[in-house]
Design a protein that fits this description.
The protein is of the alpha/beta class. The chain contains seven helices and 13 strands.
Amino acid sequence: MKLAICNDLHFNFVSAQHRRDFIARIEADAVLIAGDIGDARYTCEYLNDFTLPTMVVLGNHDAYHGSIWSMRATLAKMPRPIIYLPGWGVLQYGHTGIIGIDNWCDGRLGDYQRSTFELNDFHLIDELRGPYIDRLSKIQELAEDSATQLTNLLQDVVEHPTITELIILMHVPPFAEASFHRGKPSSLNTLPFYTCKIAGDVLRLWIADHPQINVTVYCGHTHGAADVQILPNLRVIAGEAEYEQPRIQHYREI
């Protein structure tokens, strides 16, 4: 089975013809998309153009001009070939398992208090905007929710004893080592918004107890490429991205 792995397609920055041409060029049996497909107004419309089985998680941009929880509820109801991974548990193909979460930056790495960096999330997402929102508490609440979901999914993986390879799809890099921006490691200024430390903590603990399973995390969000071996059986690959230039990051046989 051949997988095409993408992230940060941002189809709202290209024409409908460009989008359809891109999708038509995909040569795979299934597609994995690590978030930021479009925004809340159009993400589902864009996904409807896919005819291959398409496994997705949501990114922060997918909730722009709308609500995080509303988008999650809408994606969960989409019919095949769209597979919204957070609602599907563990998918197994041969000895390979696939899971996915909608994770969020959590401000736990870098220097959140002194950071001058600002995401549009705080102006364009219903749950994060407003003068009385405690931004740090809110993003950490979202990240903790995703970490709980990851913990539960990893527990489910153990119920599939023939899985020896595990693919995890998420939007935000779970480690600083996999967070690059404009060709350089993310700085103390941007790390709070370009990492989800709590997801990385969950992974380290679980993987220490399951050395027999090789785990690959595919993510995006920062638009910077990274391919790092965090542990002997844990690799994190973040895909490079540019607006107006959707691309396939990787093809992988499973």
